[in-house]
Amino acid sequence: MEGTVKWFNKMKNYGFVEDDQGQQYFLHGSALEQGTFVREGDRVSFEPADGDKGKQAKDVKLLQKASEMDSDGGNESEEESQEEETEEEDSKEEEKKEE
Questions:
Q1: Rounded Cα–Cα distance for residues 62 and 74 (Å)
Q2: What one-character-per-residue DSSP string does 1-68 give?
Q3: Confidence (pTM)
Q4: What are the tens digits of pLDDT across the range 77-98?
Protein backbone atom coordinates (compact mmCIF):
# COMPACT_ATOMS: atom_id res chain seq x y z
CA MET A 1 0.00 0.00 0.00
CA GLU A 2 1.18 3.56 -0.62
CA GLY A 3 0.52 6.82 1.15
CA THR A 4 1.78 10.22 2.23
CA VAL A 5 3.36 11.17 5.55
CA LYS A 6 0.95 13.60 7.23
CA TRP A 7 3.43 14.48 9.94
CA PHE A 8 6.33 12.90 11.78
CA ASN A 9 7.97 14.09 15.00
CA LYS A 10 11.66 13.10 15.07
CA MET A 11 11.97 13.76 18.79
CA LYS A 12 9.02 11.53 19.72
CA ASN A 13 9.79 9.09 16.87
CA TYR A 14 6.23 8.76 15.59
CA GLY A 15 3.69 10.32 13.25
CA PHE A 16 0.92 9.43 10.80
CA VAL A 17 0.63 8.26 7.21
CA GLU A 18 -2.48 8.74 5.08
CA ASP A 19 -3.18 6.20 2.33
CA ASP A 20 -4.52 7.20 -1.07
CA GLN A 21 -8.10 6.55 0.10
CA GLY A 22 -7.78 8.93 3.07
CA GLN A 23 -7.31 6.36 5.87
CA GLN A 24 -4.76 7.32 8.51
CA TYR A 25 -2.19 4.95 10.01
CA PHE A 26 0.02 5.41 13.05
CA LEU A 27 3.69 5.39 12.08
CA HIS A 28 6.32 4.52 14.68
CA GLY A 29 9.95 5.17 13.81
CA SER A 30 10.77 1.49 14.36
CA ALA A 31 8.64 0.68 11.27
CA LEU A 32 11.08 2.61 9.05
CA GLU A 33 14.05 1.00 7.36
CA GLN A 34 17.24 1.66 9.32
CA GLY A 35 18.75 5.01 8.38
CA THR A 36 15.51 6.28 6.79
CA PHE A 37 13.99 9.58 7.89
CA VAL A 38 10.61 10.89 6.76
CA ARG A 39 8.98 14.30 6.72
CA GLU A 40 5.55 15.70 5.99
CA GLY A 41 4.57 15.11 2.37
CA ASP A 42 6.98 12.23 1.69
CA ARG A 43 5.56 9.30 -0.31
CA VAL A 44 5.96 5.90 1.33
CA SER A 45 4.93 2.29 0.85
CA PHE A 46 3.82 0.30 3.88
CA GLU A 47 2.01 -2.77 5.13
CA PRO A 48 -1.23 -1.92 6.97
CA ALA A 49 -1.74 -3.62 10.33
CA ASP A 50 -4.25 -3.48 13.16
CA GLY A 51 -2.62 -2.58 16.46
CA ASP A 52 -3.92 -2.28 20.02
CA LYS A 53 -4.76 1.37 19.42
CA GLY A 54 -5.91 1.21 15.80
CA LYS A 55 -4.41 1.10 12.33
CA GLN A 56 -0.63 1.06 12.03
CA ALA A 57 1.86 1.32 9.19
CA LYS A 58 4.47 -1.45 9.25
CA ASP A 59 7.51 -2.15 7.04
CA VAL A 60 7.57 1.47 5.81
CA LYS A 61 9.79 2.30 2.85
CA LEU A 62 10.48 5.78 1.49
CA LEU A 63 9.41 6.10 -2.15
CA GLN A 64 9.96 9.81 -2.76
CA LYS A 65 10.85 12.85 -0.72
CA ALA A 66 8.33 15.70 -0.81
CA SER A 67 11.16 18.04 -1.78
CA GLU A 68 11.68 16.03 -4.98
CA MET A 69 8.04 16.39 -6.07
CA ASP A 70 6.48 19.31 -7.93
CA SER A 71 3.20 20.91 -6.87
CA ASP A 72 1.19 18.24 -8.71
CA GLY A 73 2.81 15.50 -6.64
CA GLY A 74 4.55 14.16 -9.73
CA ASN A 75 8.08 14.19 -10.98
CA GLU A 76 9.56 17.11 -12.81
CA SER A 77 11.47 16.15 -15.90
CA GLU A 78 15.14 17.05 -16.06
CA GLU A 79 14.37 19.31 -19.01
CA GLU A 80 11.71 21.24 -17.05
CA SER A 81 14.11 21.64 -14.14
CA GLN A 82 16.85 23.00 -16.41
CA GLU A 83 14.40 25.41 -18.05
CA GLU A 84 13.44 26.81 -14.64
CA GLU A 85 17.10 27.24 -13.65
CA THR A 86 17.80 29.07 -16.92
CA GLU A 87 14.81 31.37 -16.40
CA GLU A 88 15.97 32.15 -12.85
CA GLU A 89 19.50 32.94 -14.06
CA ASP A 90 18.13 35.18 -16.83
CA SER A 91 15.95 37.14 -14.39
CA LYS A 92 18.89 37.60 -11.99
CA GLU A 93 21.05 38.94 -14.82
CA GLU A 94 18.32 41.39 -15.82
CA GLU A 95 18.01 42.60 -12.22
CA LYS A 96 21.76 43.27 -12.09
CA LYS A 97 21.59 45.27 -15.33
CA GLU A 98 18.80 47.44 -13.91
CA GLU A 99 20.85 48.35 -10.82
A1: 15
A2: -EEEEEEEETTTTEEEEEETTS-EEEEEGGGBPTT----TT-EEEEEEEEETTEEEEEEEEEEE-GGG
A3: 0.67
A4: 455 445 545 454 544 454 455 4
Instruction: Return d(Cα 99, Cα 7) in angstroms, integer.
Output: 43
The string of pLDDT tens digits covering residues 18-59 is 999 999 999 999 999 888 999 999 999 999 999 888 999 999
DSSP structure string for 65-92: -GGGS-TTSSPPPHHHHHHHHHHHHHHH
Amino acid at site 77: S
Largest CA distance in the chain: 65
DSSP β-bridge partners for residue 28: 14
Nearest in space to 31 (alpha carbons), one of 52, 16, 11, 53: 16
The SS3 assignment for 87 reads: helix
